Amino acid sequence: MASSSMAMAATMNDLPDVILSIIFSSVSDTRTRNSLSLVNRKFLALERSTRTSLTLRGKARDIYMIPTCFRSVTHLDLSLLSPWGRSDLLSTASSDPFLLAQRLRLAFPLVTSLTVYARSPSTLNILLPQWPNLSHVKLIRWHQRSSSPHLGNDVVPLFEHCQALSSIDLSSFYYWTEDIPPVLQAYPSVSKALTCLDLLTVSLTDGFKSEEIQAITAACPSLTRFLLVCIFDPSYFGCVGDETLLAIVANCPILRVLHLVDRASLGSTRGEPEDDGYTREDARITKVGLVDFFTGLPLLQELVLDFCQNVRDSALALEALHSKCPELKLLKLGQFHGICMAIESQLDGVALCSGLVSLTIKNSADLTDMGLIEIGRGCCNLARFEIEGCKKITMKGMRTMASLLHKTLIEVKISCCKNLNAVASLRSLEPIQGRIERLHFDCVWEGLEEDGGILCFDLNEGLCQSVEHEYGSKRKKIKYSSDPDSSSSCMQSNGNGMFSKSWDRLKYLSLWIGAGVLLTPLPMAGLYDCPNLEEIRIKVEGDCRTGHKPSQREFGLSCLAYYPRLSKMQLDCSDTIGFALTAPSGQMDLSLWERFFLNGIGNLSIYELDYWPPQDRDVNQRSLSLPGAGLLAECLAMRKLFIHGTAHEHFIMFLLRIPNLRDVQLREDYYPAPENDTCTEMRVGSCSRFEDALNRRQILD
């Protein structure tokens, strides 16, 4: 009896350290690990000894505060050290620029993966020799390229100091496309060993030309992961065509991940190419070329072909993709037409890719509801589906597809589709409402009617649809269960214009909304009950210089108080354009627009906020205004605040009123980041004074 009682009293703390270490090593979420470390001293030591990834924050000059207990860290991120993005980062610690680098090496001796903001090559020349076994390096730079006359000078240190290098990530590093091929050719031993090369840089003004792509792939024959920005426009010299695709196949036959993205598609996606959905020019990509391309990549698992020129009649080529690339799990197609003809009941085109888990279709001019239904029938394992810029699909087609995929689909994005406004998008997802975890749609409020001050709409419209196929002399009628009253439906109207069924599993919500449009109708449009929503991203886009003044005092952030577990928000107004200085008569400057956007944010219990202020492109200014700083200071529950822009020092001091705020940073992570901040007072000294004031405060927990 005594032994039984002792056995029942055993706790997790009594497990051997070896088993506990294995358990701790399997936990990847940072906040969960931090919580485990607070249990007791033993758990603290085990958590520190098993952590393999760490992002350092704080001031580079405070060398004595570098933690020394994370001895097992293999991935180290130094890109967010303060002052952010400064060229003198290493020299701020001491007159000896190598002192900080040596202390970092002693604190983290096992680093094999490094992320660093490299504004100049000198930063790399100091840091990289500290870890000779580096296999992965990610460089970040939003400032302009250094004025070196030698091509590739900014990335040469990677090849000189990292002989074990296998992965390079330049997706957030500004460079010239001419910089890359010469360096890869000059260091053949390192280039041939590379397995991952990410050149999908959003800040590039031009994409890679055909001859540059051929030179890169010839220098790196071992690539399994290759991402880059290309030029597909046939009006440009050196545009990518069939010969380039075949060169990629010939030079890198073991590719598993390949992303080829047109430079124009990285910008705003709101513009529509033509009224009928077709662009004026066709890409120099043929059906025969695509078939040969797919045939040469049998190991492919992820494929992104995001063009801005037409690829017509692609169904036959996509059928070859199914047979030639049996391991394919992720597919994204941009400006592909004829991807699924939906003739009779025979599956064709992309609908034959039954192994797909993620599918994105962008700007397919002739994709119809029938095509969507065929995709739902054929791609029966889809967990993620994104559709953008497809004008012919409607709520009925999307709803039927959701019904067919109700067992697997958990992530959906619907954007820029003419017939799918906010209400139609949400109603089309009723069959999977109880399963969906991540969702994006556009806040286009057509279909909502104002009746006595209450926004409402008619839910009594029948959605039962039948799809007819003709084949041979027989006519077969197939009825899919997409009726709201059927058993597969997850939502019913409760009679007052709102949906009664909750979005139980929805954790992440992404929204696009035009500048000047109110967010207030969001709950009434069908998202009233989201009990587990934790994170929201709101993208506000538009030209405030040409629009009218908003009719209401506030944008509508207060309506997000409906969601009790909402703790993280990304409010992106970076593509909201206005007048940073004095606005013309009858117009509002950006400070008044910022007051409009942020009004009501103090009513939310936000733990973490990423905020991109609106900008004036004419003067390249993206700055937090006085009203914006005052309204952010009302977020009393906030702990972390990252402003992706700049601010006046006396404005940002308002943030010290937030009682438990402990992590704040200004990040000019947009191109071109200002070389010298002359439009505000935020210099290195200003940032240091604010951080010192922030760290002097007593935080209760």
TrEMBL record:
The residues covered by the F-box/LRR-repeat protein 15-like leucin rich repeat domain are 321-419
Which Gene3D superfamilies does the entry mention?
Ribonuclease Inhibitor
What InterPro entries does its record include? Answer: FBXL15_LRR, Leu-rich_rpt_Cys-con_subtyp, LRR_dom_sf
Q: Which GO terms describe its cellular component?
A: nucleus; SCF ubiquitin ligase complex
The lineage's top-level taxon is Eukaryota
Name the SMART domains for this protein.
LRR_CC
Matching entries from SUPFAM superfamilies are given as: RNI-like
Q: Name one GO biological process term.
A: SCF-dependent proteasomal ubiquitin-dependent protein catabolic process
Entry protein name: F-box/LRR-repeat protein 15-like leucin rich repeat domain-containing protein
